[in-house]
Amino acid sequence: MQKPSGADNTLPWYRQGWPWLLIAIPASAVIGGIITLALAIQSPNALVVDDYYKEGLAINQKMHRLATAENMGLRGLLRSDGKQLTLHLDSGTPVGDRTLTLRLVHATRAELDRQLELRQVDDGSYITELDRLVPGTWYLFLQPGNNAWEIRARMAIDGAFQAYLTSKG
User: Fold this and answer.
1) Half-sphere CA count of 71, side-chain side, radius 13 A
2) Which candidate among 13, 74, 130, 141 keeps its CA 20 to 30 Å from the CA of 31?
3) CB distance 78 to 151 below 8 Å
4) What are 118-140's pLDDT values in tens digits?
5) CB within 8 A of 145, min separation 6: which ones?
6) For the whole model, what pTM was predicted?
């Protein structure tokens, strides 16, 4: 059967490209929203502090510990060979502590954080065992047992490392 010469020869809408282009734009926004929601639900909120008020009060204590270290002229050189950490302290005032606490805090992954106890040896330096750390940015915090002072450093670690700890951090 032959169509009359004036008949419309257009394809149905679902066989044309432009309606699918118009449908694809909002559909991609919906898919992106679903993906974002799934990531938000599955990811831990490790960087969010639950008790911001107590965290704010602790800032004054941290500032006092840093000021104490500054007044003591306290600096430290921390070296790792991948198996052992060695700390050499330089201070205008004797430290006097036989053990020190070193916190290693990963910048983004809280499950990698560690707390180590460094013991003083005969030459006055401090040592402890340490396996290799996961490469990335780490924050180092050194304190005595009574938390009277603190020195710190921030560094990118990839294998053996050397860090200078100061009250300026």
Assistant:
1) 8
2) 13
3) no
4) 999 888 889 999 888 889 999 99
5) 97, 99, 100, 101
6) 0.66
